[in-house]
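hiii, so i know i said id send this last week but things got crazy w the move. better late than never?? heres the sequnce for the chain we talked about at the cafe, plus the structure i predicted for it. fair warning i was half asleep when i ran it
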Amino acid sequence: MYEAAYAHYRATGKKNFLNVALKNADLIDETFGPGKNMEPPGHQIIETGLVKLYRATNDQKYLDLAKFFLDQRGNAAGHKLYGPYNQDHKPVTEQDEAVGHAVRAVYMYAAMADIAGIMNDSAYLNATERIWDNVVSKKYYITGGIGARHEGEAFGENYELPNLTSYNETCAAIGNVYWNHRMFLLQGDAKYIDVLERTLYNGMISGVSLSGDLFFYPNCLESDGKYKFNRGALTRQPWFDCSCCPSNIIRFIPSVPDYIYAYRGDSLYVNLFIAGKADIEMDKTIVMLSQEANYPWDGKVVIKVDPKTSQKFAVRIRIPGWALGKPVPSDLYRYADENTEKVTLKINSESIDINMDKGYAVINREWSKGDVIELDLPMPIRRVRANEKVKDDLNKVALVRGPLVYCAEWVDNDGRVLEMVIPDDAEFKTEYRKDLFNGVTVITGNVLDRSGKERKLTVIPYYAWSHRGPGEMAVWLPVK
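okay and structure toks below
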């Protein structure tokens, strides 16, 4: 309710809904706090909502209450500890590993990042960085999903990343976007947007059908067509007895424009490549930006920069890690093949050198109406290998292109995919299929089956799987 009231206030300027939320929050503040009820929430989420109410009102008590709830985690003074499942095993500033229920966790980490930024709290900042590093280097799926276990909807041990039984709750993917966006706002580093983008284009939108009315609760990376992974079903369902994922998608999708751009001081950040227009009020001028892009199918992006008055500032364009040889900002996954194609950048049709800072190409100049940036991100088909400590992915590869992860589905591959093998010398090509899933680029090539017989392999974007009936699917396929 707090989040909804804040969104309504932002969109309309009206306070009628906001006042209802504030009345409720005042009651919570009267009831909980030092010397009152000392219980933290069972399921973290009120903390980020309270921060939104603080942003709307500038009333410190809402911020203080959010921090109180966070500080009570792992604090036995005032309540009996719930344990690791609720991230209530030790103080949040001492935590360094993502444990327990994944959705509760990422909501809490997002709130910790809020507190770190607003209150300039270095202990909170250091803790969120440690936990983030643990997730991205040891507990993160190639699809951007998090939460390996159905039991407890939880993170597993380090490098525990099963495919058939992977959980990867849709809500956890959404929470992961929230958390990484906040980490970017704190640090201005593109690695957080790299994680956000991978989650957004793969393990998050896989949670909703192309028709918008069927949903995955978990998002597995493999299916044998028998294991009913989706709350008793083999494919997406219209609803669940616990309806968090469908309703969370509904509130998340309208927030996507928030992640495309950002600014700080005289730097304007271009984070996501999504066609559209935006007016950004910087400190010295209003900048009208427009993007022309067919991303993620094509890496050519045209950005028109139209400041209201000519002004010197820096445009920082994210060069995705996937385009620079790193599928993720850790050693958890690596490319198994070489790519010689280079990223190129032009200003008003003239090629320029790319000067990088924290994952951004920085263009610092005086901008005038009509200036045009052209970015070209080559999108070859790549093989990805997992760290050898991920036992479930040993001697396997995943096929990716740009930010998209691909999967083999039974309907394109003679009913069977789990017996297919991708030899090192297999060659692949892309094909745009206008007739499939509202238009997608598929990847095809000749591979082998386990007996050594040649087979044609077709893979589709992971987000689009399970629209044509239940059956076998795999993101990771063996190499021998």
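btw The mean pLDDT is 97. thought thatd interest u
miss u guys!!
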